[in-house]
Design brief:
Number of helices: 5
Order of helices and strands: EEEEEEEEEEEEEHHHHH
Strand order of the largest sheet: 3-4-5-6-13-10-9-8
Distance between the termini: 22 Å
Radius of gyration: 20 Å
Helix content: 10-25%
Shape: globular
Number of strands: 13
Largest sheet: 8 strands, antiparallel
Strand content: 25-35%
Structural class: alpha+beta
């Protein structure tokens, strides 16, 4: 879909409010284009987006992954003091829903949960200690000694209640994801570019196709389903070991 139709889009600020802000010794920092790197990592073979950036004397790494079988995004943040002096730090994250899709907003100060309701139900909550405001969740990293690091973790869900995430547990969701990706096809060569193309294709096919086999034929323009294009995607899915996706696509066609 188009950017303006995404659930976290703000009409004036775009996707700016999805950023995690780190405050070090009274100064706030966000990722800057020239000093931020974005890359794919595969711990336990799970596709994980890693974002590395600077916050004054501190180095920040954010890692994002989506567990298999749940409409959940897990966002882990690690702040490391790369300076020579102790640094007092805290971080802030917001839930800023698209007003076109979500017209109700709740703050649960007991469970530390932000909830947006409308066409869908989104929830943002921590799995590590935080304080809560009307919009933000704040993680206090306290005073970080030189060379040491502190971490926080947040979970964003879509039509997937917090209680269900807690019942399953992040560790079990991660283990299930590792098992799933461990059964997919693998390719390892001495050419990093080729390895990246393979992994990007394998991850992208799984992300673009619904469990039902539905897939937009052209995400930028058509938003329709094309038999020819989906046949090729089905073939590629089978080659990648996504036999479940290939089967659902062919049955839908």
């Amino acid at each position: 879909g188009r950017r303006a139709s995404t659930f976290l889009y703000h009409p004036e600020r775009g996707l700016e409010r999805t950023r995690f802000t780190v405050n070090v010794e009274g100064t706030g920092y966000n990722p800057e284009f020239k000093t931020t790197t974005v890359s794919w990592k595969y711990p336990d073979q799970i596709p994980t987006l890693a974002v590395d950036w600077e916050a004054g004397p501190c180095r920040v790494r954010e890692e994002f992954f989506c567990p298999i079988g749940a409409a959940v995004l897990v966002r882990s943040i690690t702040v490391k003091n790369a300076g020579s002096a102790p640094a007092k730090a805290f971080g802030v994250i917001l839930l800023s829903p698209n007003f076109m899709f979500f017209d109700e907003y709740d703050v649960d100060r007991t469970k530390m949960t932000l909830t947006a309701r409308g066409y869908h139900r989104m929830q943002l909550f921590p799995t590590t200690p935080v304080t809560i405001g009307d919009r933000p969740l704040a993680a206090d990293f306290e005073t970080v000694p030189p060379g040491e690091e502190r971490s926080a973790r947040f979970v964003l869900t879509l039509d997937h209640p917090r209680e269900e995430v807690e019942r399953q547990g992040i560790d079990r969701l991660r283990a299930g994801s590792a098992e799933y990706w461990g059964t997919r096809a693998t390719l390892n060569t001495r050419h990093e570019g080729l390895n990246h193309l393979f992994h990007a294709s394998q991850t992208g096919i799984r992300a673009a196709v619904a469990g039902s086999g539905k897939m937009d034929g052209g995400i930028w323009q058509y938003n329709q389903e094309w038999v020819r294009d989906q046949s090729w995607v089905s073939l590629a899915a089978a080659m990648h070991g996504h036999t479940d996706i290939a089967r659902s696509m062919l049955e839908r066609i």
